[in-house]
Amino acid sequence: MKSLQFPQQTNVYHGKVRDVYTIGQDWLVMVASNRISAFDVILPKPIPYKGQVLNQIAAFMLEATKDICPNWLVDVPAANVSIGKKCTPYKIEMVVRGNVVGHAWRTYSSGQRTLCGVTMPEGLKENDFFPSPIITPSTKAAEGHDEDISKEEIIRQGLVSAADWEVLESYALQLFARGKEIAARRGLILADTKYEFGKIGDTIYLMDEVHTPDSSRYFYADGFEQRQASGEKQKQLSKEFVREWLIANNFMGKEGQSVPEMSDEWIDTISKRYIELFEKVTGKTFIPEQPSDDEIVTLVSEALNKIGAK
């Protein structure tokens, strides 16, 4: 993967879908690529405008939730680039679920009624609402699959102190409630999502992307109850349709499996679905931008200079 070079750069990390540059000791530049991953595997072809969609939805949501808790974002100098504070991350993800869908449904339908130490009630159908949102944390793996973990195990292992857990839990539930409010105004249901947090000194910050299609699952509210009653599949806006296509083509990231061929038409479909989600979630018209590497370096350099990063 190609690396850019920014003033005062001290490190670069290429994640599955983002490239993260450390500036000095205190700042991060996050470049959202058009790479797409599923089942912890980077798929072979990029998705046009995906990085811009994720970056701009995240910026929109971070602005809309900054009264709930501090967040890392300081500036968005280019369509697919964010600059923010470098935090020491907690090695867990706070997964909040309002509906029994995805991993929660796969667990539930297998007959299990406990997920990450949380008891799920009897009598639920796929996509039904939980009586109230639940938090099902996962460990944040440097590579490979994230693993389910309970609150008690997180505290026992010292991944998060008991006092910090109380704060993380409160922030996660408040953020989810705000996310549901924002979604409801747009005719959507926020079904589940994940949050990442970090710390600077004694202050806990919300990090990374928030309420994006890569980190969240949305249902269309119109007709939701009727579809549930009749057993129809729910129409959703998320990356799940990509996972479903992969599963249908016998790929779940397991050893020996090969990623199916992605046609140009399928890539175009995925791109349009991401853009649809941007417009639906934010209420804004998507304006495609494709800044060159040189433009990104110039814009980021100017922004870093403005905030006095060194």
From TrEMBL:
GO MF annotation terms: ATP binding; phosphoribosylaminoimidazolesuccinocarboxamide synthase activity
EC number(s) per entry: 6.3.2.6
This protein's UniProt keywords: ATP-binding, Ligase, Nucleotide-binding, Purine biosynthesis
Pathway stated in the Swiss-Prot or TrEMBL entry: Purine metabolism; IMP biosynthesis via de novo pathway; 5-amino-1-(5-phospho-D-ribosyl)imidazole-4-carboxamide from 5-amino-1-(5-phospho-D-ribosyl)imidazole-4-carboxylate: step 1/2
Catalytic activity: 5-amino-1-(5-phospho-D-ribosyl)imidazole-4-carboxylate + L-aspartate + ATP = (2S)-2-[5-amino-1-(5-phospho-beta-D-ribosyl)imidazole-4-carboxamido]succinate + ADP + phosphate + 2 H(+)
A Pfam family: SAICAR_synt
One Gene Ontology CC term in the entry: cytoplasm
Keyword Nucleotide-binding: yes
Gene Ontology BP, a term: 'de novo' IMP biosynthetic process
Annotated ranges, domain SAICAR synthetase/ADE2 N-terminal: 12-250
Top EC class for this record: ligase
Origin: domain of life: Bacteria
Family classification: Belongs to the SAICAR synthetase family.
Designated name of the protein: Phosphoribosylaminoimidazole-succinocarboxamide synthase
Organism lineage: Bacteria, Pseudomonadati, Bacteroidota, Chitinophagia, Chitinophagales
